[in-house]
Structure formats: C-alpha cells, structure tokens
Amino acid sequence: MSQAKEVSIVLDTYPHTSAIKDGSLSDPDIKLNFTEYRPISKSFDDMLRDQPFDICEMALGTFLQGLDSKTPIRLLPIVMGGEFHHGSLWYNPALGAMGPADLKGKKVGVRAYTQTTGVWVRGMLSEQFGVSSGDVTWVTTEAPHAADYKCPPNVELAQGADLADMVRSGELAAVIMGTKQGAPKGLERLVPDVDGAITEWFEKHQAVPINHMVVFREGADIDAVHKVYDLLAAGLSKAYPAEGRSGRFALQCGVKNVWNAVEMAMKYSYEQGLISRVFTMNEIFHESFL
Prior knowledge:
Helix content: 25-40%
Distance between the termini: 31 Å
Order of helices and strands: EHEHEHEEEHEEHEEHEHHH
C-alpha cells in the first residue's frame, strides 16, 4: 500500500467542512494536516505572502488581488461561503431618511476597502443605484491583505474605530456590515426593497455573490488537490442534499457553476481599482478543472 500524501490545509469550520475536519469524511490516499486560524481571514495574509499551505480557504476578492500581483496560487472551483449583500448596507434613520442615491459625496464605513463584501455592495450600488465607488469616501479600519496594494485616494483609514457608532453619531452616512453580524443597534437597511433588488440582480446575472472559496499553491501535488476538492464537494452534498437546495443556492462547485459569480467579482474589482485587469478562466483555474 502506498503511503498517504500529506496535505497542509486551512479551512474554517462549517456544516460542509466539519466532517472533513473531524475525519469522518476522508480519503485513504491523503492525510490532511490542518492549521487553525481565528478568524479565518488571518490566514489570507500568510497565504499571500509565503504560500505556507498546499490548500487554504480565501476570500474571492483577496484571491483576485493575489492573482493580480502574480502570487503563485490558483482557485479551486468550490464555494465555502456566499450570500446576497443588498441588505449589508446600514444607516441611521434618526438622522433623516436616506436612500442609496443619497450616498454620493458622503462617507461610508467598511472594514477594509478590499473586503469582498464591500466589493459586492459597491458593485450593486453602481449597477443598480448609479453610485460609483468614486462617488463615496470609504472609511476603513483595516489595511488590505495584499501588502503591495495601495487604496484609491478616496479611502481613509480610521484604525480601531467603531464604524457603526460613527453612523449613529452622523460621522458616516452608512456602514457595510455582513448580514451574519446581525442588525446594528439603531440602524436600518439603506436599500429600501432588499428582496426586490436581489431578485433584479439575480435574474440578470444568474449568480449568488461569493465571499470565500479555496485556493491552492502552484507546485502542490495536483492529484492530492483533486482529492481534497472531491472531499469538499462530498462535504457540500452531505450537508446540503440537492433535493433541499433552493434555486439561489450559494455553495456551488464546478467551474461552470461558479463562473458567473467569479466573473462578476472580477468586473466589480476592476471597476473599483482593486485589480489592474480581468483574467481569463485559464488564468484562474488549473487546466485539469476546466
């Protein structure tokens, strides 16, 4: 019997990864050596800088920036997390009624300018409400993961600030906060008809916005990478059987199923100055996945 190939790997714990991480879903040909990060976003910096892992979860926007700076990583066509972010923009109604178009010339908070949730929200604002990323001053609390990236001039760093409090006080007109964080106290969603805006966007693009995917370093054993991909796909199927999925199921796998969302993330990232160009499918995925 041949010895199992060792694979260094970083994954957050979800319903679709828990069986892989506890070993109940496994492949005898590979041995997964996990490194834990809390939060998972801390692993992105290490993976971009030195590629210490064969496989690592990564935000899609971070991957695109890494690709743009020629970091030797490729994307696995499988989604770890994603959702619509039309409901991720919050304002203080106590200071007066506002709509998305009112953000022009205002300041809006976001954890980092390069944060993938922010990419999706700014893309939606531009496409559906006519507010481009350059129309707003973006106030952030964190620097980008990509060390060589310089934010546009309309980005300000307020390290350590509480962005939701700045909205409550009126220093900011709004803040981008992912829906999983819950409703910030005293704030309301800025988009007036979230469900309607989501339906309009989905019908146009036939995609669900992606937050996290998985990357692997160039030079990793490609057979072992495929075995990990197969385990991840099996984990999705186990946690979310096909018959129970809605038409807007985010956790897709396979290039043809993720490409629409990846392509939209690239388009938005390019428009917002996060990457210098858009990339082809062949530049993003290893040829064995195409």
